[in-house]
Design a protein that fits this description.
The protein has 155 residues and is mainly beta. Helices cover 6% and strands 46% of the residues. The strands form 4 sheets. Strands 6-7-8-9 form a 4-stranded antiparallel sheet, with no helix packed on it.
């Protein structure tokens, strides 16, 4: 199904460990599944990275909008997470990591309106493999196949 969200935002394989930004420590993957604020989909929102490649945003099981990336310039989307001001709040943005090691934060807008880019982070030397937001919504964590983990300020 085109609109069905992926079970995990990591496009490479199932993760073996997670990272708890509230305690600044790695945690077992089983603990990630128990922690609602660490899940990529929130508040009725989910995303699907398609083969075109595009990021299809879904709200309450209905297609809401689409992010089209200029793949030759920014790379293919590989990971995503929704960004909320605090755990449990409705998201105001989605962060998308690409094969070129960049992260783009897009503001969520009205139905059928293209999301607008709010922030752009670059510093990974390899593909972004996973993203997560801190429970207070102030930080974005990213990992890459360049063997680095980076913490970005969203303020």
């Amino acid at each position: 199904d085109e609109l069905a969200p992926k079970p995990l935002p990591n496009a490479l394989s199932s993760p073996r460990r997670g990272f708890d930004l509230s305690r600044l420590t790695p945690i077992p993957v089983d603990d990630v599944a128990k922690t609602s604020w660490m899940k990529p989909d929130v508040g009725g929102w989910s995303a699907r990275i398609t083969h075109e490649p595009r990021v299809v945003l879904v709200k309450n099981d209905q297609q809401h909008s689409v992010i089209d990336l200029d793949v030759p310039q920014v790379g293919n989307p590989r990971a995503y997470t929704f960004v909320s001001a605090k755990a449990g709040a409705d998201p105001y943005a989605i962060a998308v990591g690409t094969t070129f090691g960049n992260i783009y934060v897009f503001g969520l807008r009205g139905e059928n309106e293209s999301p607008r880019m709010l922030r752009y982070f670059r510093d990974h030397a390899g593909m972004v493999t996973a993203l997560s937001v801190s429970p207070d919504g102030k930080y974005l964590a990213s990992s890459s196949n360049d063997q680095t983990l980076k913490i970005w300020s969203l303020e």
